Amino acid sequence: xxxxxxxxxxxxxxxxxxxxxxxxxxxxxxxxxxxxxxxxxxxxxxxxxxxxxxxxxxxxxxxxxxxxxxxxxxxxxxxxxxxxxxxxxxxxxxxxxxxxx
Length: 101
Prior knowledge:
- 44% of the residues lie in helices and 17% in strands.
- It has helices spanning 14-23, 27-42, 44-51, 70-79, and strands at residues 54-59, 62-67, 88-92.
- The two termini are 27 Å apart.
- The chain has a domain at 26-92.
- The protein has four helices and three strands, in the order αααββαβ.
- A three-stranded antiparallel beta sheet has the order 2-1-3, with helices on both faces.
- It is an alpha+beta fold.
- A hairpin with a 2-residue loop joins strand 1 (54-59) and strand 2 (62-67).
């Protein structure tokens, strides 16, 4: 089943399923996300130099935002209408960090 193939169940009506399907990322969006993750990995030293200990958002192989505070970053991205379903957000540091989400 792909991200576009969601079948209705008894608990979720057909109208709700159509709404959900339209919000799901497409396979192309998944490829874009993977490409942005790879870009971030390939440019780690450069990004670390410029944005150490910050949250960094990457979209279409460009840094579209950064902040020391994740909530501020997300608020800024939403204000600028960045597509949150395909943006890669990672914390950039040279320290080992354990995060509880």
